[in-house]
UniProtKB/TrEMBL annotation:
Name listed for the protein in its UniProt record: Replication protein A C-terminal domain-containing protein
One Gene Ontology term from the biological process aspect of the record: DNA replication
Lineage start: Eukaryota, Fungi, Fungi incertae sedis, Zoopagomycota, Kickxellomycotina
Superkingdom in the source lineage: Eukaryota
Entry GO CC: chromosome, telomeric region; DNA replication factor A complex; site of double-strand break
Family per similarity comment: Belongs to the replication factor A protein 2 family.
Organism: Smittium megazygosporum
InterPro entries per record: NA-bd_OB-fold, RFA2-like, RPA_C, WH-like_DNA-bd_sf, WH_DNA-bd_sf
């Protein structure tokens, strides 16, 4: 007789394998990680009485610190920011070539040191497929719907009307996630660009007293040396088109336009 297969988070497992994973991997966002309750052993975290032994999340990389053996990221999602750490010698993660503003999926576990909470990553994968982002959003919604209804489901059996209402809620959530996924990404990109433009303009303005202006390499270093230079150039070009800055000498020195 063929062994039964169960699909869990996009992977198929037989019953034996699934039993070892069930309840072990939970979708989370930054806010839920920070709000999770830590037990007396300082190593176990819970959300609504559900143990978060292993978690996975998605978000944009906003900062990368590679100065130490344990590398550290700041990751932003729709709910806020969270620190993510990983072993700098882990070739599986290093092969991903992580960059600022990359959208990533992170598998790991929650840790806390000196009242500072973070996710210790076991694996990090760059995400380019919008469908995967949408699917994660749906899993997150279903996870919290399920955990939020635990008490109600224990107190009384689920009627046919309740089941119908739950199905409608889930379908509505699916449509909302799918329709908002592209809009959310567009909003994030717009926010990133506007924030970068402000930082670049502020940097150039701070050197307004220098006749020869500030050099591109210095702007890049002061704004964010981990940022792609082409992104800095796009920001400068946009500011020049708006008449806010202008180039001098070899087109690599810039000054703020006088009012």
């Amino acid at each position: 007789m063929e062994k039964n297969k169960i699909f869990h988070h996009g992977f198929s497992h037989d019953n034996k394998t699934f039993s070892s994973l069930e309840g072990a991997i939970s979708p989370v966002n930054s806010k839920s990680v920070l709000k999770a309750t830590v037990l007396s052993d300082r190593a176990t975290f819970q959300i609504r009485n559900h143990c978060l032994s292993r978690v996975y999340m998605m978000g944009n990389i906003r900062s990368i610190d590679r100065r130490h053996v344990i590398h550290e990221l700041i990751v932003e999602d729709e709910s806020g920011y969270i620190f993510v750490r990983f072993n700098g010698s882990d070739t599986k993660i290093q092969n991903q070539d992580l960059q600022i503003n990359a959208y990533v999926k992170i598998h790991g576990h929650i840790c806390e040191e000196f009242e500072s909470r973070f996710v210790m990553a076991e694996n990090i994968k760059i995400i380019t497929d919008h469908n995967e982002i949408t699917y994660f959003g749906l899993e997150l919604i279903l996870f919290f719907l399920e955990k939020g209804n635990v008490k109600e489901n224990k107190s009384r059996p689920l009627s046919e009307a309740d089941s119908s209402r739950s199905t409608k809620k889930i379908k509505t959530s699916v449509f909302k996630v799918e329709s908002n996924a592209s809009k959310e990404i567009a909003k994030r990109l717009q926010y990133q660009n506007e924030n970068l433009f402000k930082r670049v303009f502020s940097c150039i303005a701070n050197f307004g007293c220098i006749i020869e202006g500030v050099h591109f390499s210095q702007i890049h270093s002061l704004v964010d040396e981990n940022c792609d230079p082409s992104a800095i150039k796009v920001a400068i070009d946009a500011l020049m088109e708006k008449g806010m800055v202008y180039s001098i000498y070899d087109d690599f020195h810039f000054r703020v336009t006088s009012n």
